[in-house]
Amino acid sequence: MIRTMKSSVLAILAVVAFATPALASSLPEITTLAEKAGPAVVNISTTKTMNNQGKLRDFFQQMPRKGTPFDDFFDQFDRFFGPQGPQGGPNGGQNGGPQGGPNSGPQNRERGPKQRSLGSGFIISRDGYIVTNNHVIDQADEVKVLLRDSDKPLTAKVVGRDPEMDLALIKIEGKNDLPYLEFGDSGTLKVGEWVVAIGNPFGLQNTVTVGIVSAKGRIIGAGPFDNFIQTDASINPGNSGGPLLDLEGRVIGINTAIVASGQGIGFAIPSNMANDIIKQLRENKSVKRGWLGVTIQNIDENTAKALDMKDTKGALLTSVLPGDPADKAGLKTGDVITAVNGETVEDTNALLRKVAAIRPGQKAELSILRKGAASKVSVSLGERDSKHLGQGEMQNGEDDTATEATLGLSLRPVSAQEAKALGLDKAEGLLVAGVEQGSAAEDAEVRPGDVILEINQTAVSSVDAFTKTVKEDGRKKGVVMLLLKRQGQSLFRTIPVTDGK
To answer: Does 388 participate in catalysis according to the annotation?
Structure first.
């Protein structure tokens, strides 16, 4: 028995001894990569003036005043600082701080202590262009760059920034022979592929870590164009703006975000998205993106059923802004965009990215579904800006509601007096006056104050017509799809309709 156990142990040890060299030989060899790529990765330090006085004022203004022992103190505080700070008026107070505003500047900034921060970046040209994250240099009064083999930081100027993608391009002058990195093709990346991160975590210059691509296409709520590479290569504060490299030393991502409470979960902007942005910043100092002029939402299973779709791929148009490119091209509320220039649109996030990647003035061919029929529409894109839909507040009208029992809704036509307050151009649709607790409508997140403009893509203005559609078309399909107007914004909600109700 002892002899048998001894033989088994020796066999196991032999397997381990055999497997260890094999395992080691399968791991990536990154010493050459680190040696070549390292000098092109830089340490970025910034300083900015903190709005110390503004924070102090805000703190005191939030405290209780009248009738407290602090009453006299606050009277003296207001006499000195004023209700909106030393400058007073609309341009004092918050707009006088580091973030500033159109009328802010050194003359009305509230000077406080300097805040210093560290980040990473990488050189992309011999003459000193450097890529980093926008949040690394945002609001900085001064940007300094420290090269790996130098002990004296160089002053950098900000060439251009793209807050929506969290990218920035800066430049150091007086250098023409700098080492630099080239962009690779992030589109060819595969989950499980080895990657290398180089940066300055916690100020520890030129730290090299290795890991794999954990996932692609991650949406983490960082911005409208989320499409991050997730990696388990160790990334920490200070790595922001540094490169994520493939084993050939090419930049396939820009390290941008981490999960603070986790380990081995970092996110990088794909190089294929960043490369075009960097080119625009270098050429124009700003970024121009395509604009359709629509509001959109994702498609769930019930909505797909209501639209006679085979799957949930695509982006559903909840409204088309009058006079904007989509409107001029003939797109309508309720259309589903399934592809842009032949590339499938999986969801709303994908549509945003694809449209934004096309320059304003260029044409985009959209594949759409309209009431189950497929077609193509050519749109000449506008330029994306800060357009917003108007907001409205609901006002109560006369109580002439009727109940639609199947869905659990109390409805009544919208009056002319209510239309403007509800964000409508004219009196149309049905106002949701109440939603029965535990009903199908409540489960679908229909709310009191919503205005139902359409049911199953047909305009509706009477409760009788609404009820008829629910009982006939709704029971036939098993769902009804409502186009709602909520505080000036359009959205769709789908509600299951059960046979026998």
So the answer is: no
Q: What is the pLDDT of residue 88?
A: 35
Q: Going by C-beta distance under 8 Å and a sequence separation of 6 or more, which residues neighbour residue 273?
A: 165, 186, 225, 227, 353, 357
Q: Where are the beta strands (DSSP E) in 165-265?
A: 167-172, 194-199, 207-218, 228-231, 243-245, 251-258
Q: Give residue 107's pLDDT.
A: 39
CATH topology of domain 402-496: Pdz3 Domain (2.30.42)
- Residue 485 per-residue DSSP state: E
Among 45, 104, 117, 135, the active-site one is 135
pLDDT beneath 70: ranges in the chain: 1-26, 50-115, 386-401, 403, 417, 420-421, 499-501
CA distances from 120 to 78, 203, 271, 375 (A): 43, 9, 16, 47
Q: Where are the domains of the chain?
A: 186-284, 290-383, 402-496
DSSP reduced 3-state for 393: coil
pLDDT score, position 106: 37
Length, in residues, of the chain: 501
Are the CB atoms for 417 and 397 separated by under 8 Å?
Answer: yes
> In whole angstroms, what is the distance from residue 355 CA to residue 336 CA?
15
Helix H or strand E segment including 53? helix 52-61
pLDDT (0 to 100) of residue 372:
87
**Is 315 in contact with 349 (CB distance < 8 Å)?**
no
pTM, 2 dp = 0.66
Active-site residue, 240 included: yes
Catalytic residue among 117, 234, 240, 319: 240
Residue 84 has what pLDDT? 40
Which CATH code of 2.40.10.10, 1.10.1060.10, 3.90.550.10, 3.30.565.10 fits the domain covering 186-284? Answer: 2.40.10.10
CATH 3.40.190.10 fits domain 290-383: no
Q: What is the pLDDT of residue 65?
A: 47
Sign (positive/negative) of CA torsion 297, 302, 303, 304?
positive
Distance between CA atoms of 244 and 212, rounded to whole angstroms?
Answer: 10
Q: Which of 117, 120, 162, 166 is catalytic?
A: 166
378 carries an active-site annotation: no
